[in-house]
């Protein structure tokens, strides 16, 4: 089950997740997420919306692996993000909403 939150900044979302034990930077492990999406579960989604520029929009994922490791992944808000891992996470979040 994922939880969705809206915060004023990406930094605030990252601070909140860190306080909950989400310490791994999954942006450094994009290929692992992309190649093994079944090993990850999105448990928190934080959205940041820029005040005037849509390019400032971002999404912060709180992710838990099947090994119990918890971390974060920061991506552009758009599902058209250039990151392959961001696309996989977007699809995982949609899958989680259907359950």
> Care to count the β-strands?
5
Low-confidence stretches: none
- The number of helical segments is 3
Order of helices and strands: EHEHEEEH
User: Kindly state the mean pLDDT as a whole number?
Assistant: 78
* Strand arrangement in the largest pleated sheet: 1-3-4-5-2
What do you see in this structure?
The chain is α/β, with parallel strands linked by helices. 31% of the residues lie in helices and 30% in strands. It is built from three helices and five strands; from the N terminus they run βαβαβββα. A five-stranded mixed β-sheet has the order 1-3-4-5-2, sandwiched between helices. 22% of the residues are buried.
SSE layout and pairings?
Layout: E1 3-6, H1 10-19, E2 24-25, H2 30-35, E3 40-48, E4 58-65, E5 70-76, H3 84-98
Parallel strand pairs: 1-3, 2-5
Antiparallel strand pairs: 3-4, 4-5
Which key terms come to mind for this protein?
99 residues, five-stranded mixed β-sheet, 3 helices, alpha/beta, 31% helix, globular, 30% strand, 5 strands
Short description:
This protein has helices at residues 10-19, 30-35, 84-98; strands at 3-6, 24-25, 40-48, 58-65, 70-76. The chain is α/β, with parallel strands linked by helices and 99 residues long. A 5-stranded mixed beta sheet has the order 1-3-4-5-2, sandwiched between helices.
